[in-house]
């Protein structure tokens, strides 16, 4: 078994300047601040400006992560971008970020697992680092979901926001830090519960997000528990050993239900959904950066990340900070 660990060297994030509150949404769709807050916990979200693309958000988050790690872009030989809203069908938006940062070596690619994308990306970057294919990786989650929302559908347009988060992972021989375990799952039977009704091969359009909210909520809680159990078991860790739970920021009720299941107090949960909304693959790295920069997550802490997204895809990863 490899003694190499993928250690977090730095975190970064970026949120577009424009903030859209629930009260703002009341002016364009039949909803209310009270309805949104009670069902989701969201009060505001950020929206990308005209001409501001997923790669721009990802580049800003990556630069912040590099600065936090004390590294130069030239130190990176893998750029892995989790996104469901790339700039173009191809090339991968990861290569645009690579170019924006001035990285001329290594490799770059996108990963599409919707809201689970960042967890999938961490797991894959960990495997690539352990295989010796890279030394340092920028793992980014970036989304501009505002571009695929139906602004007449009040059940979905109020839920999502734009943003990006990133971590720098470095392959380190031995030690106790780094990614300890990962567990990834998917089940295509649920693909019509949360999807986009367009694509190059079908409609030749980007399409709009569609969701059966109640069914997604009903399935999410059980599936999340399953993958958390698997991740903890692989590492030989109990739920009581955790210092921090950093979940996908989709819905406060799902987060609270998961915390109750494992007996985690509110003080152990990182929650940013109130002001970020659901930023899909960006939500976990955004929350990680928030908690790392404000001093909650510290060296040596055990941190569990998890997410579930369209497909369904879902996964979790355990990291010793």
**What can be said about the biggest beta sheet?**
5 strands, mixed
Number of helices: 9
Radius of gyration: 18 Å
The shape, in one word, is globular
- The second-level CATH architecture of the largest domain is 3-Layer(aba) Sandwich
How many strands? 13
What do we call the CATH topology of the largest domain?
A: Peroxisomal Thiolase, Chain A, domain 1
Strand content: 25-35%
Low-confidence stretches: none
Structural class assignment = alpha/beta
- Fourth CATH level, the homologous superfamily of the largest domain: Thiolase/Chalcone synthase
What is the end-to-end distance?
21 Å
In short:
The chain has 321 residues and is an alpha/beta fold. The chain has nine helices and 13 strands.
Could you please describe the fold and organization of this structure?
Helices cover 31% and strands 26% of the residues. By secondary structure, the chain is α/β, with parallel strands linked by helices. The chain has 2 domains: 4-173, Thiolase/Chalcone synthase (Peroxisomal Thiolase, Chain A, domain 1, 3-Layer(aba) Sandwich); 178-320, 3-Layer(aba) Sandwich (Peroxisomal Thiolase, Chain A, domain 1). It has helices at 22-26, 33-40, 54-69, 93-101, 117-130, 213-235, 252-262, 273-276, 283-293; strands at residues 4-14, 18-21, 44-47, 78-82, 107-111, 136-144, 162-173, 178-186, 194-196, 209-211, 244-247, 302-309, 313-320. It is built from 9 helices and 13 strands. A hairpin with a 3-residue loop joins strand 12 and strand 13 (313-320). Strands 1-7-6-4-5 form a 5-stranded mixed beta sheet, with helices on both faces. The model has no long low-confidence stretch (mean pLDDT 97).
């Amino acid at each position: 078994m490899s003694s190499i660990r993928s250690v977090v060297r730095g975190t970064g994030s970026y949120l577009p300047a424009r903030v859209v509150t629930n009260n703002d949404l009341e002016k364009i769709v039949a909803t209310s601040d009270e309805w949104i807050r009670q069902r989701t916990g969201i009060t505001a979200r950020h929206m990308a400006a005209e001409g501001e693309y997923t790669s721009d958000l990802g580049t800003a988050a990556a630069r912040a992560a590099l600065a936090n790690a004390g590294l130069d872009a030239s130190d990176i030989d893998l750029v892995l971008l989790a996104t469901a809203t790339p700039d173009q069908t191809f090339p991968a938006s990861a290569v645009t970020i690579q170019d924006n940062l001035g990285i001329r070596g290594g490799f770059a690619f996108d990963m599409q697992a919707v809201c689970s994308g960042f967890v999938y990306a961490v797991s894959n970057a960990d495997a690539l680092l352990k295989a010796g294919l890279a030394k340092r990786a920028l793992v980014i989650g970036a989304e501009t979901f505002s571009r695929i929302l139906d602004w007449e559908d009040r059940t979905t347009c109020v839920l999502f926001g734009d943003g990006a988060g990133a971590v720098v992972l470095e392959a380190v021989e031995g030690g106790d830090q780094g990614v300890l375990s990962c567990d990834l799952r998917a089940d295509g039977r649920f693909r019509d519960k949360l999807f986009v009704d367009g694509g190059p091969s079908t409609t030749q359009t980007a399409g709009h997000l569609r969701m059966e909210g109640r069914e997604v909520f009903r399935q999410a809680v059980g599936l999340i528990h399953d993958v958390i159990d698997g991740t903890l078991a692989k590492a030989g860790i109990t739920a009581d050993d955790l210092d921090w739970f950093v979940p996908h920021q989709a819905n406060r009720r799902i987060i609270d239900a998961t915390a109750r299941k494992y007996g985690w107090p509110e003080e152990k949960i990182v929650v940013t959904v109130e002001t970020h909304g659901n930023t899909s693959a960006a939500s976990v790295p955004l929350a990680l950066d928030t908690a790392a920069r404000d001093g909650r997550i510290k060296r040596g802490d055990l941190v569990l990340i998890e997410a579930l997204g369209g497909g369904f895809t879902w996964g979790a990863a355990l990291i010793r900070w």
